[in-house]
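Journal club prep — side note

Before the paper discussion, L.F. wants everyone to see what a predicted structure for a comparable chain looks like in token form. Sequence:
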Amino acid sequence: MKFAVIGLGSFGANVARTLFERGNEVLAIDRDKDMTEAAKNFTTNSVMTEAAVKENLQALGVQEMDVVVVSLGHQLEASVMTVLYLHELGVKRIVAKALSEDHAKVLEAVGATEVIYPEKDMAIRTALRLSSPDVIEYLPLVSGITIQEIAPPVKFIGKTLKELDLTNKHGLQVIAIKEVISDRITFIPKADFVIKDSDILVIIGEEKRLSKLNPL
């Protein structure tokens, strides 16, 4: 796929690097010379220019990209204008980083197809892990639904998934089990799978139901 990443701060640079390492074509854009020079090591092409100028974006061919990521940090006006111009140029998927809910509303109004809050999302994930000691990882999906990696509660140890019957009793589904000792992952484990204290359960369900696992 073809991606453009506009703004090469910590977030933008890491997005660009990861996309490039996964075999995608990546165009990096920033007005800072040092950042664009550094990005040449992990992108297909890196260009120093002012992104909040429609003619600059058009000249770089961003309208041909599958996805454009806008990560302009605290440059609120520049991020809004860049998203607007990308929309006017016909970019189908525009992913923009927002700093606040009001910023997000403006970005969506001018054409962003997806708005993300990296700092807010990470803060929420960290707080949830800290407040629930058994939660190892947390991934929100749609409203109220999450995927969590958890250490099995004591009452789970030695029991099969059939005995636990999480789906019927609690509306939860174990979609994978990581066996730490053997470093093996079992996807959609069978009902006769016996839970060990060294296992990590990957469970999907409503957050409020997942939060009640410990007292089971």
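L.F.'s comment for the group: The CA atoms of residues 158 and 195 lie 5 Å apart. Keep this in mind when we get to the figures.
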